[in-house]
Amino acid sequence: MEPLRLGVLVSGSGSNLQAILDAIRKKRLDATVCLVVSNQPKALAIERARRAGVATAIVNHKDYDSREAFDRALVTKMREAKVQWVVLAGFMRLLTPTFLEAFPHRVLNIHPALLPSFPGINAQQQALDYGVRVSGCTVHLVDSGTDTGPILAQSVVDVRADDTVDTLSARILAREHVLFPKVLQWIAQGRVHIMASNGSSGRVLVQLDGVRASVGVAGAR
Ligand code: GRF
Q1: What is the pLDDT of the chain when averaged over all its residues?
Q2: Can you give the pLDDT at residue 136?
């Protein structure tokens, strides 16, 4: 089978991008990163991609009049690179239907909490403030809501009494680096199936190895 063609969108440090690149290098992930696009010109993630010999592009949202125009520019880049799946690895912009409809059910995100708890920014702080005893990370398909798409996988970590945002974030991030490449490999192996669920329009059913994994709403919520 041909390696899965990935496009990665980043805004920050790119440690998840690094985990994906490392998994490919170690032959744990049958994929190729065709393009890394950042909306932040100085993102460390871009440096990591260049070091790995991966093509990069900067598409700065500040150069566009609307979210749709920005998303159209992203779609053009991804299509030029013949990307099959888009990976959001610390990408700090919300995608509009303009982008999502170009890659229907082919956009993945990782979030540093056990969704549907604590969506949005500062998820680790939200978890500490609430006083939960466990947290973790979630890999999900992206829809036009904030961290609302169908869940593919989650990994759980303990929340300790003396945790700070930094210590909890570090423990979760270590799990992200294992979980994200693992889910991508499931996709590369053809183990993930996404289909319209029976009867109810707009909903999608996600199956892993033929077993129901998640049901989510495909469009906006
Ligand atoms: C991670 O915590 C991820 O869950 C969130 O953004 C952060 C990205 O970190 N979506 P990095 O840029 O991959 O180091």
Answers
A1: 93
A2: 98
Closest approach atom of ligand 1 to CA 173 = 2
Please give the Cα distance from 138 to 88 (Å, whole number). 12
pLDDT in tens, 112-131: 999 999 999 999 999 999 99
pLDDT tens figures, 32-53: 999 999 999 999 999 999 999 9
Q: Does some domain include residue 110? A: yes
In a domain, 205, yes or no: no
Tally the domains of the chain. Answer: 1
Residue 15 falls inside a structural domain: yes
The whole-angstrom distance between residue 84's C-alpha and the CA centroid of its chain comes to 14
CATH number at residue 161: 3.40.50.170
- What pLDDT, on the 0 to 100 scale, is given for residue 210? 85
Query: What distances in angstroms separate CA 59 from CA 41, 77, 191, 216, one per listed residue?
Result: 8, 9, 32, 30
Domain containing 63: what range?
4-191
Ligand 1 atom nearest the C-alpha of 10 is 12
Separation of CA 213 from chain center:
17
CA of 15 to the centre of ligand 1 (A): 7
Residue 209 lies in a domain: no
